[in-house]
Amino acid sequence: MIPSADFTESSPANDQLDKLTHIASGLGGELVDLAATLDQIDTCTKNQLQTLDQVRLNAKQMLEGNVSVRDAIATVNETTVETLDAVLGSVENIQNAGNRTQKLASWVRSLDERITVIEGSIQSAQSNNNDIASIASQVNILAINAKIEAARAGEAGRGFAVVAEAINELSRKTANAAEGINDSILTLGEWVESLRDEASVAANDAKGVLSEAGETDNSLSGIAQHVRLITSEASQIKVNADDVNTSIADFGQSFEHMGQSLEQTASGIHHVRERANTLVSQSECLIQSSVSLGGVTRDARFITEVQTRAAQIAALFEAAILNGDIRRAELFSSRYTPIAGSDPQQVITSFTAFTDKVLPEIQEPALEFDPRVAFCAAIDTNGYIPTHNNSVSQPLSDDAVWNMANCRNRRIFDDTVGLKAGNNAEPFLLQTYRRDMGAGTVTVMKDVSAPIFVNGKLWGGLRLGYVSE
């Protein structure tokens, strides 16, 4: 165990020791700054690694997504090729049907002209038939007259009468035939007239069909052209997707290499940070050893102050156990009960009420010892500060940020500085650290502590925090 410090002796050897102590103290401050910087870099690299992992994941997802897109584009490209073939086949079939429709429409249009010719032929046949009927009528009249003349001639005209009768019979048959033909011609004319009306409607429809067929043909040609363009674009998209896939794969490999380099750098920084923390601890031991050997440091008066007050607390605790004010088991209890609704979390234990009663009379005067003193509080081996200074032991509010700064009692400070102060068994421990004061301000603090032994057992330590020069 390092002996208690004695700051009264002075000799040439002590002068050198004083210089060593001063250098060790300065070295400790520099190492704390270095360690703090490494902490920031280490935290930054950890954040970068987290970001890197996220980017890696995103890059992987991009690659997988692009593969899916590429496969989809390939499918689309194949589909468009098949669609183009189907469209071209459909267009060809429709165009062939259109050609046949156009031919039919042309024939329908020509039918009107043919019907006109037929009507002319029917009219001519009817005219000729009328002539035949007229001739038959005249022959019939001539035959009747011939029969009358034959009768007058008597026996001499008998043969002529027979001929006249035959001619008369022929004329009647011819007239009957002409009348039948005339009826047929009239019926045929009505049919042709009806056919002409229907053909006229069909001709108009055929005209529209021909016009629409032309437009349809143009539209189909346009569809085929657009499908060709789509097929061409789909093929180009597939080529571009393949290029993108290659680029993303190359990017992923490059990013993976960069990530490996960053991980190596982060690992190196973390290792250096740990070594820097070790150097901080070693510098603290160096300061302790040099001071214990008689070296004088600017922190000597703070060390003496905290040792004196730690001894007072130890004596007070021992007397309380002896007087029955608190049992030993209660004083060393590590069963902490959370205070409901506290934010940040506060806890109480079996000795909290006792320390609230006895510690302020020892801790509060230390705040007046030096203007640089920020706090003076006892902490147990678990980092628990039951009773803090009055200024930072305010009642809890609904504002967690305000509570963080103003309700520091009944809280467990299990950070490195706090746990080292609570578990140090040497006559004193001088630690240097950076304290975040808020609003972006960081102050270099010193934390000097002395152990509190109760009947030979370490209860914790008394911490005295002050701003470093």
Task: Give the tags.
2 domains; disordered N terminus; two-stranded antiparallel ribbon; Beta-Lactamase; rod-shaped; alpha+beta; 8 helices; 469 residues; Helix Hairpins; four-stranded antiparallel beta sheet; 8 strands
Describe this entry's structure for a reader:
There is one protein chain. With 469 residues, the protein is of the alpha+beta class. It has helices at residues 12-153, 158-292, 300-323, 328-331, 352-358, 360-363, 400-406, 416-423, and strands spanning 337-338, 347-348, 373-380, 384-385, 411-412, 429-438, 441-454, 457-467. Strand 1 and strand 2 form a beta hairpin. The two termini are 29 Å apart. The relative contact order is 0.11.
Quick description:
The protein has eight helices and eight strands, in the order H-H-H-H-E-E-H-H-E-E-H-E-H-E-E-E. By secondary structure, the protein is α+β, with helices and mostly antiparallel strands.
Domain count: the total is 2
CATH topology of the largest domain: Helix Hairpins
As a whole number of angstroms, the C-alpha radius of gyration is 61 Å
Quaternary state of the chains: single chain
Order of helices and strands: HHHHEEHHEEHEHEEE
Q: Give me the CATH superfamily of the largest domain.
A: Methyl-accepting chemotaxis protein
Helix/strand/pairing category: alpha+beta
CATH architecture classification of the largest domain: Orthogonal Bundle
Mean pLDDT equals: 77
User: What sort of overall outline do the alpha carbons produce when their principal axes are compared?
Assistant: rod-shaped
How many strands, what sense, and barrel or not for the largest sheet? 4 strands, antiparallel
Quick one: CATH class of the largest domain? Mainly Alpha
What is the terminal separation in angstroms? 29 Å
* Relative strand content: 5-15%
How much helix is in the residues? over 70%
Which parts are unreliable, with pLDDT below 50 for 5 consecutive residues or more? 1-8
| Tally of DSSP helical segments | 8
Number of strands: 8
